[in-house]
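debug: dumping io for the single-chain case to check the tokenizer round-trip. Nothing else runs in this session.
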Amino acid sequence: MAPLDQRIAAVRERLELDDRKARRHIAKMDAYRTKWTRFLYGVNWADPQLYDVVVNLERVDVAEATALVTGLARSDRFAWTEALQRRVQDLAL
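debug: decoded output
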């Protein structure tokens, strides 16, 4: 997550848009994510309680966030086990 101003700057740079178009793009994508996750899962995608980790990019930079998430992904708690693989395959059915 990140403050709106930071998100606008990132979208402006990545998509080469002006502020107004970047803001509209963010609003459109957020609305799409909201509709999609409510339809598919019946939840609000912006609810931080749905996630194991939420990183606020206002507090850390992308390199620090990457190191944090990479470290967690390599931990035993998030190991890819046969039991988890079966659960994912069952969900795919």
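debug: round-trip ok. The helical segments are 4-15, 19-41, 62-73, 82-92.
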